[in-house]
Design a protein that fits this description.
By secondary structure, this protein is α/β, with parallel strands linked by helices. The protein is built from 9 helices and 16 strands. The protein is globular, with a radius of gyration of 20 Å.
């Protein structure tokens, strides 16, 4: 396998510079969404893909034209500048570290690690190597939550005081083709879905100061209902319900409930209540959605101020690659993901110890996207 690609590079929209050549590790369920959306951004050019299952990489090559190879071959390529890490949670830190060791920037799916220590190790390695680390979710860059940010920053609710965030469902074994890893460390409702909600909240309100929580496990075993594993029994190794209260650095107090033990509920995704008004935010696991504000007894829908409202998974990777070329900070920064990881870890520690848990990190809020961006633009 070659280690250098000397083919001419096409220009991209960012000041006429060459695109960043990316290698994909992990060709599973989420990878097609990334690859489809990546075509929006000229800053991205996929040079290869790899998976521990060679058939998955070969299918990606057939569908998207990205050359299939082994992980070792991909990491050895000197023309690849960044690794998109879409492996299972247990491998996120390992692949990030391997990418950094090979001299490449790393961007991974959430969560940033199985625990805070893994995340700190990745950040330290990247800092020592002078490389960037990014992490999903990037859904807060969509038009829905960029509109929420614009309204909060403009004082639409006054000073944010309290809030709620709810993700409650029966679990992923009803639809996911291989759901077992959702019930292992790095999974469960908190580590799987919590990053969307917590990142959206930190993006709007700033960092979390402390956490008080109780977690529980509704069942020790789950039955897979989806094909091709229908009927298989899953051992549940993580808590499947997490209820906590977060105190933010700005003084806001937000109740968060993440659960795989709920059949049906009627709570809104995220609400932020301030001194002057209340705001209802859309699903943070999407890019568009309905944004509403109320100063009285009725909700008033607000027009979205920003674009990128369809499925744009890879916008965070593209934003990091723009930062690589221009030198500006990227928005889905590893330090933000590490903070969210520390908050999630604090849920379990608080439940076990019965104490409030102080969160050590204090990342800056990501910069909002500018108004009026054309599709494919990020600066």
């Amino acid at each position: 396998m070659e280690t250098v690609d000397d083919a001419p590079r096409r220009p991209c929209d960012v000041k006429g510079v060459a695109p960043v050549r990316v290698g994909l590790v992990g060709c599973g369920t989420i990878s097609p969404a990334y690859l489809r959306a990546a075509a929006t951004f000229d800053i991205l050019e996929f040079a290869g893909c790899a998976d521990i299952n060679p058939e998955a990489a070969e299918k990606t090559q057939e569908t998207f034209g990205v050359p299939a190879m082994t992980v070792e071959e991909l990491l050895a390529r000197r023309d690849v500048e960044a690794i998109l890490n879409l492996t299972i949670p247990a491998a996120h830190a390992e692949i990030n570290l391997a990418a950094i060791e090979s001299g490449k920037h790393a961007y991974c799916e959430k969560p940033f690690g199985l625990d805070a220590a893994q995340g700190r190790k990745v950040l330290a390695a990247a800092a020592a190597a002078g490389l960037r680390v990014g992490c999903a979710p990037d859904t807060f860059l969509g038009g829905g939550h960029q509109t929420v940010r614009a309204l909060i920053d403009a004082g639409a609710v006054g000073r944010p005081v309290v809030g709620t965030a709810f993700m409650m469902a029966p679990g992923h074994e009803s639809w996911h083709p291989n759901p077992a890893f959702f019930y292992r460390p790095g999974g469960g409702p908190l580590f799987d879905m919590g990053p969307y909600y917590l990142t959206a909240l930190v993006h709007v309100l700033g960092p979390v100061r402390r956490v008080a929580a109780i977690t529980s496990r509704g069942r020790d075993k789950r039955v897979v209902a989806s094909r091709p594993r229908a009927g298989e029994i899953i051992d549940v190794r993580v808590d499947t319900h997490a209820a906590g209260t977060l105190e933010f650095e700005n003084g806001a107090v937000v109740t968060v409930v993440m659960s795989f033990d709920v059949r049906l509920h009627s709570n809104r995704f995220i609400e932020i209540h301030g001194t002057d008004a209340s705001l209802s935010a859309p699903d943070p696991n999407g890019f568009g959605g309905l944004v509403r504000v109320s100063t009285g007894r009725e909700w008033e829908e607000r027009a979205l101020t920003h674009g990128y409202t369809r499925n744009m998974r890879s916008i965070g990777l593209a934003d990091m690659c723009v930062g690589i070329r221009t030198g500006r900070p990227h928005r889905c920064d590893g330090r933000l993901a590490q903070h969210v990881l520390e908050v999630m870890a604090a849920f379990g520690e608080s439940s076990t110890t019965g104490r409030h848990i102080e969160v050590a990190s204090r990342p800056a809020r990501p910069e909002p996207l500018p108004l009026g961006l054309a599709t494919g633009e990020l600066d």
